[in-house]
Structures are given as structure tokens and as C-alpha cells.
Specification:
membrane, sodium transport, transport, Na+/H+ antiporter like fold, mainly alpha, transmembrane
């Protein structure tokens, strides 16, 4: 019952803040809910100075939710599937070269650049973390969050090509980022001496290729089942089974569930809606997943803001977080620039497009969930704190200004 009351409170707050935003502020929903969640968290912290028991009660209630498990184990499957339904396969195919290179090579470059930067910056503040944990931080913070990205870009007037690159890359680099994180995490736990290059490659390929194949199987099975009937309620239930059953199966098989959901969503959103659904089913199906996406996003961003209450912040951690947020922007640009140069499509995209993709590459709940999922160690608290600072900086600073940046670059 306590968990139900907590979710009821989160939903009530999300609904109230969404109303205020639509009525008065008109910010992108993700930004407004994150911002108001942060303000609410600050209110709880300030109230704690007058009544310590109040903060402890709120903290105790928030700890009822395992944020990492809640997002990575439940929400992520729905959000990635819902987001990938809107990706046009012809547009994706036209930009496949850039999307694949950004999502794979780009994420690896960013992981290494950010990891080494943190390794050399921390000693300046009297902190020391082993390189493997710095690379683990690089892996969890490098992928752009498709949930945050798609929420922001709905109001930005981008060309179809740039929008497809940003959204497509964020959907795939999310899955690749989780795979890289899982691989480095296993190395960190088992020790570098127990992992050779072949072991790392095998782990990576098993997760990534396995996830893509699983997505194709899940998507095609769902398509065949939906095509064989004409009953929109059952067809929506089948899509829910694809997400929940498919994601659970991927977890059991130790392959990438996020990549599977992206592939299954793209297949369903293109072949499924065009060839397997009636007009009535297509209408209900689209509205169902649009509302589901909006409601789950509202809970997620509200929760991210409020989670600040349960994180221990040191003044140095905040400063390191701001520095790393700036480092991350430069790392993001170079992780796009070098693959574009290497695979010879830089001229096709243009430097302005790369700058828009850099500033529009937001970090969100996935980075926080991955940081919270780290095994207990003396380094976990600082990594979690820095991650929170970067995510808040990314969504509030970059998210608020992305429209102006796009207009300036296109002007």
C-alpha cells in the first residue's frame, strides 16, 4: 500500500506541475517536470533544516523505489518501444551509415575521452578513482537519452535528416551504451587480469547482436499475430506482450533488451502499422502508446528531480560535475566529428548539423539509473553525484537553450 501511495503522490505532483507548465510556462514537458522536481527536492532539503524528521520521512518513502531497477527493468522497455514507433524506416535507412557509426564508434570514443578526462581531473580535487571506474563513468554518461531528446525536439524546427540522426542515434547509442557499461562493469568486478580482448569482444557481440536478433524475432512475431486478426484491444495487448515478455526474455538470455525494444518498435511502427493494422486499430494503437509514453515520461522526470533528496552532495562533487558537463559537450562533438570524417559523410551532414547534434544530445534518467546500479564501492557515491549534476545541467541548461541554438546556427 505504501508503494501505491508513493506512486499516487508522484502522479498527482506530475499532473499538477504539467498543468502549471501548459497553463503558464509552456516549456517542453521533460524540462518543466525535471525543473519542478528539483525545486520540490530543494524545498524538502530546506524544510529539513527546520524539521529533520520531515526530510527523513520523504527520503524513506523515495527509497521504497529502486530507481535503477524501476527504470532499467520496467520503464525503459516501454519508453524505447514507444519512441521507436515514430521512426520512419526509409528515413532511418537513408541515415543508417551516420547513425550506426555515431552509435557505436562515437559512443566508444566518448566513453574513452570522458573516462580519461575524469581520471586526470579528480586528483586536482584530492580524489582518486581507478581508471576502470572512470571508464565505467564514461560508458554510463556518454549515451544520449532518447527519452529526454525526443521530448525536447518536438518543439525544435529541425530538418528531417538532422532529426532522424539525433533520434535514431539516441535510440541506438542508448542500447550500445548499456552494452558497453555492462561489459566494463563485469571487467571491474572480475578484474582486468581475467578478461582478454577476445572475452571483451565476445561479451559485447553477445549482448549487441543478440539484442538486435531478438528484436527482429519479437517484432516479426508480433506483426504476424496482429496481421491475423482485426480487434484493436487484442492487438494492443499483443504489443504490450512484445514489450514486457520480450524484454524479460532478453534479461533471462543476457542479451540487450534496450536494442531489442528499439528494433521491435521500428518494425512494428513501420511494417506493423502499414500492413497489419486496420485504420481503427492504427488510430487506437498510436493514441495508446502516445499516452503511455507521456504518462511514464512524466513519472520519470518527476522522480529524477526528487531523487536529489537521497543523493549526498559534497561541494567538490558539484564543481567536478559542472566541469565534467563541459568536458562532455566537447567529447560529444569529437565523438561525432571523427566518425563523420573517417566514414566520409561530414560534408553531407555539415559542421552546423554536428553542432546541433552536440548541443541536442541530452543526458537523462538512463545515466542516473546506470550510476545507481553500480556495485557498492568507495567510488559509487562520487560517480552518482557527478552524474546527477551532469544530467540536471544537460536537461535544464542545454534543453532550455536548444531551440535558440538551432535558430542561431540555422539563421
Amino acid at each position: 500500500m505504501e508503494l501505491f501511495i508513493l506512486f499516487s503522490s508522484l502522479m498527482t505532483l506530475a499532473a499538477f506541475f504539467s498543468y502549471l507548465n501548459v497553463r503558464f510556462f509552456r516549456l517542453p514537458s521533460g524540462i518543466s517536470l525535471m525543473l519542478m522536481g528539483v525545486i520540490a527536492a530543494m524545498g524538502v532539503i530546506i524544510a529539513g533544516y527546520f524539521s529533520k524528521g520531515f526530510t527523513e520521512i520523504i527520503t524513506e518513502k523515495l527509497l521504497l523505489i529502486d530507481f535503477s531497477e524501476f527504470l532499467l527493468g520496467i520503464l525503459l522497455s516501454f519508453l524505447l518501444f514507444a519512441g521507436s514507433l515514430h521512426i520512419s524506416f526509409p528515413d532511418l535507412k537513408a541515415s543508417s551509415k551516420s547513425i550506426v557509426s555515431f552509435a557505436t564508434l562515437g559512443t566508444l570514443i566518448s566513453t574513452a575521452a570522458v573516462g580519461f578526462a575524469l581520471f586526470y581531473i579528480l586528483p586536482l580535487f584530492g580524489q582518486n578513482i581507478p581508471l576502470i571506474y572512470c571508464l565505467l563513468f564514461g560508458a554510463l554518461i556518454s549515451p544520449t537519452d532518447p527519452i529526454a531528446v525526443m521530448g525536447i525536439l518536438t518543439k525544435a524546427n529541425l530538418s528531417k535528416k538532422i532529426e532522424t540522426n539525433i533520434v535514431g542515434e539516441s535510440l541506438f547509442n542508448d542500447g550500445i551504451g548499456v552494452v558497453i557499461f555492462a561489459t566494463i562493469s563485469q571487467i571491474a568486478v572480475a578484474g582486468t587480469d581475467n578478461f582478454g580482448t577476445a572475452d571483451i569482444a565476445k561479451l559485447f557481440l553477445q549482448e549487441a547482436i543478440g539484442g538486435i536478433l531478438a528484436g527482429l524475432i519479437i517484432g516479426y512475431t508480433g506483426y504476424r499475430l496482429i496481421k491475423s486478426i482485426n480487434h484493436f484491444q487484442t492487438e494492443i495487448l499483443i504489443s504490450l506482450a512484445m514489450v514486457m515478455g520480450g524484454y524479460s526474455l532478453c534479461h533471462y538470455l543476457h542479451i540487450s533488451g534496450p536494442l531489442a525494444m528499439v528494433v521491435a518498435g521500428i518494425l512494428t511502427g513501420n511494417r506493423g502499422t502499414e500492413l497489419a493494422m486496420s485504420d481503427i486499430t492504427r488510430d487506437y494503437f498510436g493514441k495508446f502508446w502516445e499516452v503511455t509514453d507521456e504518462v511514464l515520461n512524466a513519472i520519470l522526470f518527476m522522480l529524477i528531480g526528487l531523487e536529489i533528496v537521497v543523493v549526498t552532495f559534497e561541494p567538490d562533487y558539484f564543481i567536478i560535475g559542472v566541469i565534467m558537463a563541459i568536458v562532455l559537450i566537447f567529447a560529444r562533438f569529437f565523438s561525432l566529428y571523427f566518425p563523420a570524417l573517417f566514414f566520409r559523410f561530414k560534408k553531407e551532414l555539415g559542421t552546423k548539423s554536428l553542432l546541433i547534434m552536440t548541443w541536442g544530445g541530452l543526458r537523462g534518467g538512463i545515466s542516473i539509473a546506470l550510476s545507481l546500479s553500480l556495485p557498492s564501492s568507495p567510488f559509487k557515491n562520487i560517480i552518482v553525484s557527478i552524474t546527477f549534476v551532469i544530467v540536471i545541467f544537460s536537461i535544464i541548461v542545454q534543453g532550455v537553450t536548444v531551440e535558440k541554438v538551432i535558430k542561431k546556427l540555422n539563421g
